[in-house]
Amino acid sequence: MADSERLSAPGCWIACTNFSRTRKGILLFAEIIMCLVILICFGVSVGAQVYSSLSVVEMILAAIFFVIYMCDLHTKIQFINWPWSDFFRALIAAILFLITSIVVLVEKGNSSKIIAGVFGLISMCLFGYDAYITFPFRQQRHTAAPTDPADGPV
């Protein structure tokens, strides 16, 4: 029993780390880091803690999707449409980061609040790119049906 656990652990580790090298894995990891940086900037800023909830929620959601894709759970749990859920998560995050960043940058504030607003715009681009690359892969690709020759049967 101990030998089988020991042999399966490296295979599991390799399977889990292979996702972190893909474009989607790097993108989700970058989203987590950007949300953490925004959270720190809003935490340091005076009177801007109300804006930090967006970065907390999106950081948690990105971490959940990172673990789901890394452990290949999206193929094992079939009752949720994971690709569309991921697309709408990224799209809504991009829209909300755009709105929040514009509001933060328009208000007068200290430098950490302005930096958080700029990082919010960068995160908006990151989440928008995530939504962009996620959506085309979710459409069903149909192949053309074979047609008969124009002259009729041969």
TrEMBL record:
Q: How does it sit in the membrane?
A: Multi-pass membrane protein
State a GO cellular component annotated for this protein: membrane
Q: Please state what the protein is called.
A: Proteolipid protein 2
Highest rank taxon of the organism: Eukaryota
Described function: May play a role in cell differentiation in the intestinal epithelium.
Which PROSITE patterns is this protein grouped with? Answer: MARVEL
Q: Which residues cross the membrane?
A: 26-48, 54-75, 87-106, 112-132
In the UniProt record, the gene name given for this protein reads PLP2
**One matching Pfam family:** MARVEL
| InterPro entries assigned to the protein according to its UniProt record, in alphabetical order | Marvel, MARVEL-CKLF_proteins
What keywords were assigned to this record? Membrane, Transmembrane, Transmembrane helix
Location in the cell reads: Membrane
Q: Where is the MARVEL domain?
A: 19-139
